[in-house]
């Protein structure tokens, strides 16, 4: 017999060789029907895989991330099985589960796959799923794996196998399809009831532009047809909120092939929007004692060799800039932190200088592959709202609390009300992956955990997810249609102070090494604006809107009054424009609603006589007639209430 411990710490004995599915069946038939995957002693596990020793077991349903991962991983194999049947000779790369669905990279090998084929692929997937094919796991030797996939001329699989350690190779088979895979998977294809192929994309094999370009087939599946229908409705809403579409309609940013892919051009309204976000954060940072700095867009290659960024980002950075001086090389900076270390190092520092909080809206550059570029969310040049706090080890917790206050204030002002937090700690069983002493790690991890507890922040903890230099706290925001975005991050770093040999003189008159906290509430200005655009569908909070109101004269003879009203509003710090086109008032209203301007002010003879405006609010309709001064007070109060609530 073996003893199984459940998440609530209760235990139960089972016969050796019992599977997680049999455990689920012993609890209830309904659970056995709903369970999709298991975790055994912290490791993903197939429901049909026997247990031969005492273990801690968790069972996962669709609602759990682990359940969805197994479901979509099995669906990736189902997609590959369908493609194998529909397109003989196709060769397979990799096919993982992703946050929403899965993909499979394939070499068509002479076959042509287009969007017109999507329905055919979906139908084949469901046909195969309805066969309720058993998904069988098998351990296989390296030699047998190379022969199996070699006989099928699967060169991509053979390349992967050649890099694996013998004795740790497994395959999964369903129907006529066998794949190299670690798993875990569903016991059968039966739970997969609805499938949708969502898109095709190009993907270089192993991300190398010099190697074959494969076709990446994206898809998503669900255990119920109704779930797929709801998802497709959500995707239609996402299309309407696409920041690339909204950015063009609202004249915020543009891209030019003459300038270069992945290098956004901020138009006047977009630049003003960015400036307001920056000023908003600068004002907060000033209150918290941050010192603004400016660093160059380039740095000597040795700077990034010292920091370790050249080894980490060398392949993803633009190639070195060679100067006339022999052997002298510069890089477009991929990170701001090495520069900030040199600022700290520029003068002797004392414990009285700590904590030192250096902030910069610093633009960095990374060479993203062209196929990975996407609007403002994936670019080659972006500006980080970067700050680095140099502090003594016993100051970490207090600094963490202050950074959390800043992030919460920003989320509140921008109506990001639904967010999750994750504390990423090191793996205690694999300490060689990390640098720094056990004492320093304990101090840093305890500070983060205690800071979250003091704030009442319910954060999930993930072992093994820490950066190699220290633990971190990440904030994932859910937008208005339920998508998750990582925005704020706080990281503790013992690595760079060591690499740059930073030090300060302590109260004991001895030299000490400071600890460095990396902090970026927005992350990058580009990505943050993209997320904010899609979250609000372009309807920014009033304080942030590029144009807060537009004055619409009902005919040309009221143009002068319209401009007079806009000027009076401007004197009250209200951003107002005038639409004095020779168009009917109905068209002006429709056009300006499309621009997501919060308030539309219609003016005619009555308004001109009484120094008034007729107010329409975006999405709410008519708000009545007000004096211009009264309307200015109304807007100012709304702005103050939003920011300070």
From TrEMBL:
Keywords: Ligase. This is Threonine--tRNA ligase. Its EC number is 6.1.1.3. The keyword Ligase applies. It comes from the Bacteria. The keyword Ligase applies.
């Amino acid at each position: 017999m073996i003893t199984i411990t459940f998440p609530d710490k209760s235990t139960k004995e089972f016969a050796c060789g019992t599977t997680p599915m049999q455990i689920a069946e012993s609890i209830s038939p309904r659970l056995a029907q709903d369970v999709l995957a298991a975790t055994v002693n912290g490791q993903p596990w197939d429901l049909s895989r026997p247990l031969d020793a005492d273990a801690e077991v968790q069972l996962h349903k669709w609602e759990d991330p682990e359940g969805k991962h197994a479901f979509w991983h099995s669906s990736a194999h189902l997609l590959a099985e369908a493609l194998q049947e529909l397109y003989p000779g196709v060769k397979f790369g990799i096919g993982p589960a992703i946050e929403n669905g899965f993909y499979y990279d394939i070499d068509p090998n002479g076959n042509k796959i287009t969007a017109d084929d999507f329905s055919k692929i979906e139908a084949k997937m469901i046909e195969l799923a309805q066969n309720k094919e058993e998904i069988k796991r098998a351990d296989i030797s390296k030699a047998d794996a190379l022969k199996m996939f070699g006989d099928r001329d699967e060169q991509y699989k053979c390349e992967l196998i050649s890099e694996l350690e013998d004795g740790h190779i497994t395959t999964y088979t369903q129907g006529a399809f066998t794949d190299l895979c670690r798993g875990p998977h569903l016991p059968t294809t039966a739970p997969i009831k609805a499938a949708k192929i969502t898109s095709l994309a190009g993907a270089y094999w192993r991300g190398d532009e010099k190697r074959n370009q494969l076709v990446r087939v994206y898809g998503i599946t669900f255990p119920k047809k109704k779930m797929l229908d709801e998802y497709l409705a959500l995707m239609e809403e996402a299309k309407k909120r696409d920041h690339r579409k909204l950015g063009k309609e609202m004249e915020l940013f543009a891209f030019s092939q003459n300038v270069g892919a992945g290098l956004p051009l901020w138009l006047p309204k977009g630049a003003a929007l960015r400036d307001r976000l920056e000023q908003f954060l600068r004002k907060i940072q000033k209150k918290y004692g941050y010192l603004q700095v400016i660093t160059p867009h380039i740095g000597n290659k040795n700077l990034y060799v010292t920091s370790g960024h050249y080894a980490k980002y060398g392949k993803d950075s633009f190639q070195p800039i060679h100067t006339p001086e022999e052997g002298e090389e510069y890089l477009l900076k991929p990170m701001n932190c090495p520069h900030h270390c040199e600022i700290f190092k520029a003068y002797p520092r004392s414990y009285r200088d700590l904590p030192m909080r250096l902030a910069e809206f610093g633009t960095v550059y990374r060479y993203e592959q062209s196929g990975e570029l996407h609007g403002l969310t994936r670019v080659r040049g972006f500006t980080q709202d970067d700050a680095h706090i140099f502090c003594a080890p016993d100051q970490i917790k207090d600094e963490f609390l202050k950074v959390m206050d800043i992030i919460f204030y920003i989320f509140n002002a921008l109506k990001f009300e639904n967010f999750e937090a994750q504390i990423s700690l090191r793996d205690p069983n694999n300490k060689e992956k990390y640098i720094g002493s056990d004492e320093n790690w304990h101090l840093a991890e305890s500070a983060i955990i205690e800071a979250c507890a003091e704030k009442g922040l319910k954060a999930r903890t993930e072992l093994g997810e820490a950066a190699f230099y220290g633990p971190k706290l990440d904030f994932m925001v859910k937008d208005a249609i339920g998508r998750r975005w990582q925005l704020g991050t706080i990281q503790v770093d013992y690595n760079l102070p060591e690499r740059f040999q930073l030090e300060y003189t302590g109260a004991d008159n001895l030299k000490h090494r400071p600890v460095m906290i990396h902090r970026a509430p927005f992350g990058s200005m580009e990505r943050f604006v993209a997320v904010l655009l899609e979250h609000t569908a372009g309807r920014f909070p009033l304080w942030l809107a590029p144009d807060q109101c537009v004055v619409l004269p009902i005919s040309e003879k009221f143009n002068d009054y319209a401009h007079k009203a806009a000027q009076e509003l401007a004197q009250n710090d209200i951003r107002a424009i005038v639409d004095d086109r020779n168009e009917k008032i109905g068209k002006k209203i429709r056009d300006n609603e499309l621009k997501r301007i919060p308030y539309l002010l219609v003016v005619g003879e009555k308004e001109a006589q009484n120094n008034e405006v007729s107010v329409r609010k975006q999405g709410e309709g008519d708000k009545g007639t007000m004096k211009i001064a009264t309307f200015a007070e109304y807007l100012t109060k709304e702005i103050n209430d939003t920011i300070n609530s």
